[in-house]
Fold:
Amino acid sequence: MFRLIVRLAIFLILPALVIALAGWVLHSSGELESDDAFVQMRRESRPFLWGTAYSDTSGYQKLRTVQAEAPEIITLGSSRVQQFRDEFFNGRFFNAGSGSYLQFDDLLAFVRRIPVGGEPRLLIVGLDHKFFNARWTSRVDDPFNPHTPERLWWTMVRVRWSDVYRDYFAGKFSIADLTHTRPDGVRRVGLQAVARNRGYHDDGSYTWDWWESYDRDLREIANDEDVYVYGSGISDETMAELEILLTECQRRGIHVAGFLPPFAPPVYQALKQRRGQYGYMFELPARLAPVFERLGGSFADFTNPARCDIQRDGFYDGQHASSPGYRRLWRCWTESDPRLLRFSSSAAHAATRHETATREGPSSGK
Structure:
């Protein structure tokens, strides 16, 4: 009997060690941090980068932050608003954008969860084109769910241990990434942040780890796939939801500034070449502008990256301009709409002017 027990123990040691090592990786990288740690870390003075690889509860984290802190300026939308940074604004700012928001009604649900008395003065809403495509049907059942089963530490280890090894042998992270402390003083939570410097900053904005990557966007345009599914008609349901959001914000004293975000130049040109298949996209400005005007909001169309020279600062991929590009977008918008100027940081304007002068050379004075 004793020998049987010993043999069984030896037989179990190897798989136990395999799972234990994966558990150590998940723990050391911060993948097992609680969802509420994001809010708690914002109360500390130390900057952080939150980039988990095996779960995404950013919708809950963003909503919880807004409910707890009542920022004066909020950006809300899909991942295409995540480049707005705190330094652009004059006032307490938080970027509540999340890739978990796949339908416009997610944004409406977010606004309805903002407590009475905790309303922002300015709500910048990214009018992601796909929200208005009548053929776009993808959604997350509850983007504000605080605890998916995978966030329970044992479930995470049990479900994700093989993914840890797969990513390790694929070269996505190394043991040195987990044991090395970077000298910049930024706390990194999650394997994406630790190994690839990718994730959410403490102001809610996001940094990607690729640059000018357009192949996937162009392939999806050619094949009628994913966020680029063809569509000739604008969704009446989304237009109705937009009116509800604007009406509610008007009642609660929130100024809404909605914008159509830019595409990278090669992607924008590809969309224009297939204008017949993306009819809804090019009809949007004419449909949206009067709604915002009637309900007291601000509206701008930045679909074309040449506007305000947003393309000057590059794109992460076909849909996501750089943060400097969004700073240029914001400055341009405030100059065309005086209602937004009071929310803008003079430092952000000065930085944009300096970049323009540096790249274009000194003014000729003409």
The chain has 14 helices and nine strands.
